[in-house]
Amino acid sequence: MQTLKRLAAPLAALLLAAPAAATTMSLQLSWLDSQGNTRTWNGSQGGTPTGNGQEESFVGQQVGGTWVLGWDATADADPFVNGFFSIQNNSAITQTYTFTVTLPIAPPVVPVSSIGGSIGVTVTDTNGNGVATLASSGAGFVFNAQNDGTTTLQLLGPGFALNAPFAGGSATASASSGLPGGTIASIGANGSISITHTFTLTPGDAVGLTSFYLVNPVPEPGTLALFGAGALGLLRFGRRRAL
């Protein structure tokens, strides 16, 4: 038994010191092909630790036949997503793109949460023809945050449009809600958080999206009461010792 205990201690220390498995971020992009059919690309990437707590970085590019997708994101499974995403429309038509980035989280944020998010959008007249427009699609929003696939926050809604002011030029817009800190009461998240971007983009042009979504746990009333009672007890103990 003593031998087992002597072996167990170094093993436990080794397990605690082992690096956590990389988080895998999922990416999905949909667009129209030349026949007007919706096509979808799915990808994923393991994170690289940044050295700042549990944060990991995700950097990459995917080239399709009529588009180029790039990403440079930082995320934390505890959880938030903050990233820059770019899409170039190399097709001959105005495309409706739907781009989603999904992050698994641990531990779950239950039963409720507080959230916040923001988006910055830049559209560029890459082909120099003097026309470059990014717009919301129909009754949809450009920015849609979700907990476990259920929408929790939307920004840049129906009727939003952003136009480059001149040939070769760029235009920028932004929106946010619940920041700083995540102040909007929302549902919990058991397994994942995600951001879906949906928009139209004119042919030959490019868009850059800087998106951020934060989910905070909300202590249950019982936990707050227990914490308050403990703090009060420590305060009384301190006063008695002072006397």
Shape from CA axes?
globular
Largest sheet: 8 strands, antiparallel
What class, by secondary structure content? alpha+beta
Strand content: over 45%
How many independent structural domains?
1
Average predicted local confidence, pLDDT: 87
Count of distinct strands: 16
Give the helix proportion (percent range): 10-25%
| CA-based gyration radius | 23 Å
Specify the oligomeric state.
single chain
Order of helices and strands: HEEEEEEEEEEEEEEEEH
Description:
With 243 residues, the protein is α+β, with helices and mostly antiparallel strands. The chain has one domain (23-242). The protein has 2 helices and 16 strands. Strands 1, 2, 7, 9, 10, 11, 12 and 15 form an 8-stranded antiparallel sheet that branches. Strands 3, 4, 5, 6, 8, 13, 14 and 16 form an 8-stranded antiparallel sheet that branches. The termini are far apart. The relative contact order is 0.18.
